Amino acid sequence: MRPKLTDVAKKAGVSPTTVSRVINNYGYLSKQTKNKVYQAMKELNYQPNSLARSLQGKRTNLVGVIIPSIDNPFFAELVANIEKKLFEKNYKMILCNANYNKNKEQEYLRMLIANQVDGIITGTHNLDIAEYDKVGLPIISFDRTLSDQIPIVSCDNYQGGQLATNELYNAGCRHIAFLGNPYSISNPTNERLQAYQDTISKLGLKSYIHTVKFSESAALKTASVRQLLEQHTIDGIFCSDDLTALLVLQEAKKEKIDIPHQLKVIGFDGTKLIQTYYPELSTIVQPIAEIAELLTDLLYQKIEKEDLTFKINHFKLPVKILRNETTL
Amino acid sequence: MRPKLTDVAKKAGVSPTTVSRVINNYGYLSKQTKNKVYQAMKELNYQPNSLARSLQGKRTNLVGVIIPSIDNPFFAELVANIEKKLFEKNYKMILCNANYNKNKEQEYLRMLIANQVDGIITGTHNLDIAEYDKVGLPIISFDRTLSDQIPIVSCDNYQGGQLATNELYNAGCRHIAFLGNPYSISNPTNERLQAYQDTISKLGLKSYIHTVKFSESAALKTASVRQLLEQHTIDGIFCSDDLTALLVLQEAKKEKIDIPHQLKVIGFDGTKLIQTYYPELSTIVQPIAEIAELLTDLLYQKIEKEDLTFKINHFKLPVKILRNETTL
């Protein structure tokens, strides 16, 4: 068997990234490190195979990352983590803000193909599955079903929905509403709603489903929140994202509804930003760093070996509950 | 004089971007639009001059955007706005999160040069000015002095500092502290502190300067806030950014300091996120969309004509004050 880059790395006692950098004469490397790598390459008679394309200029070391909106703190933190992992692997990120806009997403896809990115990570789903099947590039999806061929990474949305609903129940709520994204095909975040319904049913409670699209403006969401709060029967709200939960807290304050005594609230996402600057909010914490790591690792594997298929198509990472004042 | 792309646009009654797209056969264009542009090109005997490089493959239509951290809401909103403007001009953004890390910034600069981006927008300043002078690419700086050759776009930080300090004074504060970034060379945000000092002096008050680096962790900032609040003399705080102001509100709540009756607080930045989800905070609003537009416009001009020099080197855009509960 021909030696691989990882064999060189092992022999030289350095990371594969370092070997890659030596081969590409890239980044900061001491003379000593370079010599170790050269020596190992010589001893193993290593020919930079998988990197040949890169050396011939066929790799661009660019990855396209398509997301709905970078000014949403969840996507900002996800992108920050993806960028960190890509950088470690000597990749750069082309950031594509699709803004819930089908045309923009389509044009970005074309640009990315034209620009010969090595692969794509996408967290949007405005386009038909067919559009993504045509791309002909390695793609990994975050939280979106795009095609049978495209692996999905997400948190365990169902587990999160269960945890959130049970948290409200255990805190004493008996009239628990769901506030958030409506059902839509191809969106695994649906499982948050599904888990809410299953759990409510198991607890023998009545379900109150109040949907408002994630992509709606804060003003429209606020109106929707107000409408929900007017239903005085509600004593607990599971919001399918933290920003919506913050709007609930705001409106409750305006309406002089005491949280947590009259109303308990739990969100979903748990970014560092929310944890730091809204420490009173209970939430379901997505493992954002782990999601970013898995997205980039899978993409990297697909780039290295394009016909690679994974045993599972949907990778679900466990969530954690963060109990704070709003569910005490 | 030879006809320019803008002449074609004028004659065809379309935008320059549309002409550029027709020439590059890019994006969505109706047959009618294409014909109008072709007709205008023919009539003017237009040769796509300035686009020649692009057609010959020498332009990559990539722009590198270097910022300290995308998970800071201010930079997230700035990047979202820059991306929007770049996209309109058929450019794509390579997002570089420098993370207050000199080595990472340097490596990104090298990557961007190697990747032949057409230009760079940078909002960091970890590196020596010499590093940026060596780049040999069009660069526009956001809020950082990098070199005499590199134009700077920023809000009017001095005006912001004046407005903030006067707001606290007019609300009745007589012991007004500054909390935020310490002085550092090459950082125009210094002017926020300078304006505070000048205004305090003009008002005949005593200045209380409590510095904590913008790049510090929230935990360390919180400790610093607590220390400041223990100085019972303080009745107003001007924070040099909104996130620090949120920490002040949090600590005040913990210490049962009544805001705004015992202590008034004003921040700086005024992102949509803060305005929406922390509507009680008074702040100085930076014109983020206008900053993004000017950054991209100037860069675009520099890309079109590399030896272009601007009459002024520092473009300052006016800020606005947003009065909310924390300074009532």
Number of helices of chain A: 13
- CATH fold description of the largest domain in chain A: Rossmann fold
Radius of gyration of chain A: 23 Å
H/E element string of chain A?
Answer: HHHHEHEHEHEEHEHEHEHEHEHEE
Give the biggest beta sheet of chain A: 6 strands, parallel
Oligomer classification = homodimer
Shape of chain A: elongated
Report the sheet-strand fraction of chain A: 15-25%
**Annotated CATH homologous superfamily of the largest domain in chain A:** Response regulator
Low-confidence stretches of chain A: 49-57
Most extensive interface: pair and counts?
Answer: A-B, 43 and 44 residues
**Number of separate strands of chain A:** 12
Side by side, the strands of the main sheet of chain A go 2-1-3-4-5-11
User: What's the CATH C level of the largest domain in chain A?
Assistant: Alpha Beta
What is the level-2 CATH architecture name of the largest domain in chain A?
3-Layer(aba) Sandwich
Portion of residues within helices of chain A = 40-55%
Backbone structural class of chain A: alpha/beta
The total number of structural domains of chain A is 3
In whole angstroms, the N-to-C terminal distance of chain A is 61 Å
Q: Which whole number gives the mean pLDDT of chain A?
A: 88
